User: Which sequence fits this backbone?
């Protein structure tokens, strides 16, 4: 796991906006090995992990899916729901039993549209997550598939 900003850390979603968003939360549980979503499919919800872990993976032609990052407590699962065309860019599977807060993407987008300050806070929070995930994906793919010494310090 990483030490980057999460749902409850200071640089993430401010408390007042987090409380507003939590009004839409629904408690859910998933057993180990549950596919939460598949790359290329419709992104209509997202989750914040309460307990357990979830692996994000990326399809690699001719190989099995590469695990990009493993997420845990208080981390956001899913960002594709916020940006058109609302299609998952990665896949996700539980690696242990997971309890999470689930959010309906359409309801959250509508709430953000009605409250521009909330919308900006959510966009910044999710945008930070997107940036971290893209950096993690690049690093992981270089680790897995690039010739030795071809990385940024090679």
Assistant:
């Amino acid at each position: 796991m990483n030490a980057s900003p999460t749902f409850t850390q200071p640089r993430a979603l401010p408390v007042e906006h987090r409380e507003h968003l939590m009004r839409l939360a629904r408690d859910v549980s998933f057993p180990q090995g549950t596919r939460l979503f598949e790359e290329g499919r419709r992104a209509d919800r997202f989750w914040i992990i309460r307990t357990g872990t979830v692996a994000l993976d990326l399809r690699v032609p001719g190989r099995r899916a590469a695990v990009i990052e493993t997420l845990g407590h208080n981390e956001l699962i899913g960002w594709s729901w916020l940006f058109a065309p609302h299609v998952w860019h990665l896949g996700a599977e539980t690696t242990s039993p997971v309890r999470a807060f689930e959010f309906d993407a359409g309801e959250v987008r509508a709430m953000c549209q009605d409250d521009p300050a909330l919308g900006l806070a959510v966009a910044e929070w999710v945008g930070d997550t997107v940036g971290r995930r893209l950096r993690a994906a690049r690093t992981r793919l270089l680790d897995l598939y690039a010739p030795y010494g071809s990385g940024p310090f090679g």
Confidence is low (pLDDT under 50) at residues 1-5. Strands lie at 26-30, 35-37, 45-51, 54-58, 66-71, 76-77, 91-94, 98-104.
